[in-house]
Structure formats: structure tokens, C-alpha cells
From TrEMBL:
<dbReference type="InterPro" id="IPR045592">
    <property type="entry name" value="DUF6461"/>
</dbReference>
<dbReference type="Pfam" id="PF20062">
    <property type="entry name" value="DUF6461"/>
</dbReference>
<protein>
    <submittedName>
        <fullName>DUF6461 domain-containing protein</fullName>
    </submittedName>
</protein>
């Protein structure tokens, strides 16, 4: 039906309640069929959903949309009844999600169905029995729709495809402060997270960015390194001093990168193994993440020295920390929770 779409079904729900969960107003719904999709004005800035009923199940179709994949939509929907969605696009991005009792229970990429997240990753098992996500070319997404139908009782057949629909404009639901995997974190009651949560907003971002670098230095073992600490402090404040500091950071990055590549030559090639060796157990790992840390520190100094207009198309130095924060550890756990709060703080 489409190269990019999302189908969501909710068992035992009311159409009006489902529309509201998607950010729509039931009063703005109008009768149509899928044939009317060609007449939707996509340049209007609005998004649209098609809503219909299949027995006791409400079905929502999004053409080139993905609202039905979002926790902020799926979790309220699951308060109405068991909810499931299948999403795919032309770039082969996909997801299959199952929500119940206010939580996304299981979610997966249909091209990698064994790698699952959610409160109960195994919750999809009973509805996927006998299904093959590696069928003949072009039908993987149909397997996802079959799973949605099994989980909710929807009949996604020709009668549904050609039958009556309601088309409704929607305004995307506001993003949640935290994803469900972070909501119960005990760290939220500890400093500085409790301070951030008390009045989360953009005014916390400078402190958050500084804390992100502190956590990254701990994770990479550079929290007592004089060069790293000097870079975090911004150098001696002189232009020549900062330029020399950036040169030393670039040299440190190059040295650790070369050491990582040298160690990689003697490490096992696990690309064909059923159980790949975790990267953080390999000797080269520490040099890889340290190299990324030097890079992030150098970019932090460079960003401070640039003219504002010169930074518009460049990634922020905090984004480069992602490369340094690979692997487990308490500092990494704090860092990833912090990044969620930073996104929420930036939204205001």
C-alpha cells in the first residue's frame, strides 16, 4: 500500500479515544476511503491519520508517518486495550511494537527480530509463532501487519483496504520527559538529577553539558589527566594557550587512535560468530574511547572559539561524546540518563 507507513491497531477501543491519543480532535474527522489519500494536501504542515473499525478493534493508518511507534502514543493507547503497530519506510527502517497496561511491552526492528526492547521483550513471542521475517523480497512488512492483526484481532484485508475510513488531522503528541526505561531509575533521586528534575528547563543546560564531560572523563579513565582537566577548564584563557592546547589534544587523539588500530591487528575477528565478543572486553577498546574523548575535548574548545554563525551546521561537542561512552559502567549509566534529561531540558 505504501513505501513508508505505519499501521496501529487497538483492541476494544473507541475511535474518538484513539484519535485523541494520536493528537487529533474527533470533531475534525471526516468520512473518506484510502483512495482519498491522493487528495491529502501534504504541504499544509499537518499530518493525517486514517481511522477505521475492524470488529471491536480500531485501526489507524499513517501514510509516511510513524506516530504509532512512539511511546507517547502507544502507552496511552494501551490504556484503552492491547495496542500494536508496524512501521516501515523506504530506507528499510522498521519497527514492530506491542503495548499493554500502560507500557510498551516489546519492540523490535523487523529486519533484526531477535534484538528486542521493552518491559517484557518476550511478549511478542505468542503472536509471532510460525511467522518468518525473512520471506520473499517485498513482503517483510506484510509479516509485521500479520503480527499486528494477531495481537489485536484486526482484519487487515481487502474489505478494510477498500472500506470506509475517517481522515483526521493530528498535531504530534508532546515528547515525554523520560522514556519508560528511565522512569524508574534510582538515579533520579540522587544529585544532580534530583536538582534537574525539580524544575527541568534550558537554564540547566550549561551545568548539564559540563557534567556530561565530567562523566565521560571518568568513563574513559582521564578524570585525573592534566591535559584533559586543562581542556575541560578551557585552558589558560589566552588565544595562544588555547591554540597550543588544541594541538596537544589532536596529538593525543592521534596517538591513542594509532595504538587502538595496532592492537586490533591481533584481536579476534568476531564478525561471523553467533555470539560476538563485546567490544569493551578487547584491549583496543580503552584506546578507542580515549581517542574519541580527546576529539570531543578538542571540539569543545573549537566551538567556544568559533563565531556563532560558524557553528550552525556543526554538531555540538556533546554529540561527539557518544563515541567515547561505549561500554558498560556507572558513569555510562549516568551519562545516558543525563542525555535524556538534556533533550527534555532543551525543549523547555
Amino acid at each position: 500500500m505504501s513505501e513508508a507507513a505505519c499501521v496501529t491497531a487497538v483492541a476494544g477501543a473507541d475511535e474518538a479515544d484513539v484519535i485523541r491519543c494520536f493528537g487529533g480532535d474527533p470533531a475534525e474527522a471526516r468520512a473518506c476511503t484510502f483512495a482519498d489519500l491522493r487528495g491529502v494536501e501534504t504541504g499544509s504542515g499537518l499530518q493525517y491519520i486514517f481511522v477505521s473499525r475492524s470488529g471491536s478493534t480500531v485501526v489507524v493508518w499513517e501514510d509516511n508517518g510513524f506516530e504509532g511507534t512512539r511511546e507517547e502514543v502507544l502507552r496511552p493507547l494501551s490504556g484503552l486495550g492491547r495496542a500494536a503497530s508496524a512501521f516501515w519506510n523506504v530506507n528499510a527502517h522498521s519497527s514492530l511494537s506491542l503495548a499493554e497496561d500502560g507500557l510498551v511491552q516489546s519492540s523490535l526492528d523487523m529486519l533484526f527480530p531477535d534484538d528486542r526492547g521493552g518491559a517484557r521483550p518476550e511478549a511478542w513471542d505468542r503472536y509471532l509463532h510460525g511467522l518468518d521475517f525473512d520471506p520473499p523480497a517485498g513482503s517483510t512488512w506484510a509479516v509485521g501487519m500479520t503480527a499486528v492483526a494477531r495481537a489485536t484481532g484486526a482484519r487487515l484485508d481487502t474489505a478494510w483496504e477498500t472500506g470506509p475510513q475517517q481522515i483526521v488531522p493530528i498535531r504530534p503528541v508532546k515528547e515525554a520527559v523520560l522514556h519508560q526505561c528511565d522512569e524508574g531509575s534510582s538515579l533520579l533521586a540522587e544529585p544532580p538529577f534530583d536538582h534537574y528534575m525539580a524544575d527541568l528547563g534550558p537554564h540547566h543546560l550549561p551545568h548539564m553539558r559540563q557534567y556530561a564531560f565530567q562523566l565521560a572523563l571518568q568513563h574513559t579513565g582521564l578524570d585525573e589527566d592534566p591535559l584533559a582537566l586543562s581542556a575541560l577548564a578551557g585552558g589558560d584563557g589566552t588565544e595562544s594557550g588555547r591554540e597550543e592546547l588544541r594541538t596537544r589534544l589532536a596529538a593525543a587523539q592521534s596517538a591513542d587512535r594509532e595504538q587502538a588500530f595496532a592492537l586490533m591487528r591481533d584481536e579476534p575477528d568476531d564478525l561471523d560468530e553467533d555470539e560476538p565478543i563485546p567490544a569493551w572486553t578487547l584491549p583496543s577498546h580503552v584506546f578507542h574511547i580515549r581517542s574519541a574523548m580527546w576529539w570531543a575535548l578538542e571540539e569543545r574548545l573549537a566551538a567556544e572559539d568559533r563565531e556563532p554563525d560558524d557553528s550552525l551546521c556543526r554538531p555540538g561537542p556533546e554529540s561527539l561524546l557518544t563515541y567515547a561512552m561505549r561500554g558498560p559502567g556507572s558513569s555510562a549509566e549516568r551519562y545516558w540518563l543525563l542525555t535524556s534529561l538534556m533533550r527534555a531540558a532543551a525543549r523547555g
